[in-house]
Amino acid sequence: MIAIPSIKIVRCIWKHHALLAEIGGSTFYETFANDNSEADMQAYIDKTYNLKQVAENLLNTTIIYFVAYGLNQDLGYIKLIENVNAAGLNGKVMELEKIYVRKKAHGSQVASMLMQQSIDLAKEKGYEHLFLGVWQDNERALAFYKKFGFEIFNTRQFKLGERTCDDYLLHRVI
């Protein structure tokens, strides 16, 4: 395990949009570039992590971002969406749409701290479920989510450029 002293998690505001665009695009690329074409990766990153899109997300009151800092740098982030509809789940639902950690922080407690932040916020806001989608071939992520009590409840397809990927939908009761 990598020791990173003094990890701090900060709720993001509009001024963080450039940081979120950069960390979002770079961590997505680090995670999935080996499994996808360069064209598909760039199409997804350009659509999802451009400055305008991230700035709009930060102005949307149902979208919440947090960034983890340590060693005087950003190490990972989460994106949560409030009051979502998820087929197969009843009650008040929050989505953990994104949780990514820079490779240099893999093996530290950054991902666990970000996940706990998600769970704590969902509890604080009175949600009954926290759910997320994960690529079916991402065994590392699946094992991580299961450690936090997430269970598969459905599937969906996810478009990455021209490629269609199969995702599991996981949830945990809050």
Q: How would you portray this structure in words?
A:
The protein has 174 residues and is α+β, with helices and mostly antiparallel strands. It has one domain (8-173): Aminopeptidase (3-Layer(aba) Sandwich). The chain has helices at 17-32, 38-48, 51-59, 110-124, 139-147, and strands spanning 8-11, 63-70, 73-81, 93-101, 129-135, 151-160, 163-173. Strands 1-2-3-4-5-7-6 form a seven-stranded mixed sheet, sandwiched between helices. Helix 1 (17-32) runs antiparallel to helix 2 (38-48) and helix 1 (17-32) crosses helix 3 (51-59). The longest helix has 16 residues, at 17-32. The chain is globular, with a radius of gyration of 15 Å. The model has no long low-confidence stretch (mean pLDDT 95).
Layout of helices and strands:
Blueprint: E1 8-11, H1 17-32, H2 38-48, H3 51-59, E2 63-70, E3 73-81, E4 93-101, H4 110-124, E5 129-135, H5 139-147, E6 151-160, E7 163-173
Parallel strand pairs: 4-5
Antiparallel strand pairs: 1-2, 2-3, 3-4, 5-7, 6-7
